[in-house]
């Protein structure tokens, strides 16, 4: 999905969007369920939202589920750094895979 967004995002983003959202491309949508990810981008842009992405890493969800806390912590810190300059009150973070995006609320603060 990342490859598709790099190639197509500028073509599908609206010229006069009502707002912007930052799409978190999780590892599941990126590699296994690409069609759902692309459909998400097309839905958001058809609703007149500008979709932006960040050079973030995997969600760390898989590492946490296997108890690999140190590895997960490294991924989480890199994600926070990659997203910190983009996410704001005006540009919310949205996601596709619930377990990946809920990590920002549930696991990342710890």
Compact description:
Helix content is 53%, strand content 12%. The chain has helices at residues 2-12, 27-31, 34-46, 61-65, 69-84, 98-101, 103-106, and strands spanning 19-24, 49-52, 93-95.
Keywords:
110 residues, mainly alpha, 7 helices, 3 strands, globular
Tell me about this structure:
There is one protein chain. The chain is 53% helix and 12% strand. With 110 residues, it is mainly alpha-helical. The protein has one domain. The chain has a three-stranded parallel sheet. The chain is globular. The termini are far apart. The mean pLDDT is 92.
Secondary structure blueprint with pairings:
Layout: H1 2-12, E1 19-24, H2 27-31, H3 34-46, E2 49-52, H4 61-65, H5 69-84, E3 93-95, H6 98-101, H7 103-106
Parallel strand pairs: 1-2, 1-3
Number of strands: 3
End-to-end Cα distance: 29 Å
What percent of residues adopt helix (DSSP H or I)? 40-55%
Query: Reading side by side through the largest sheet, how are the strands ordered?
Result: 2-1-3
- Number of helical stretches of at least 4 residues: 7
Mean pLDDT: 92
Largest sheet at a glance?
3 strands, parallel
- SS class: mainly alpha
Assembly level = single chain
* Rg of Cα set: 14 Å
* Uncertain residue segments: none
**β-sheet strand percentage:** 5-15%
> Given the C-alpha coordinates, what overall shape results?
globular
User: What is the element string, with H for helices and E for strands?
Assistant: HEHHEHHEHH
**Number of structural domains:** 1
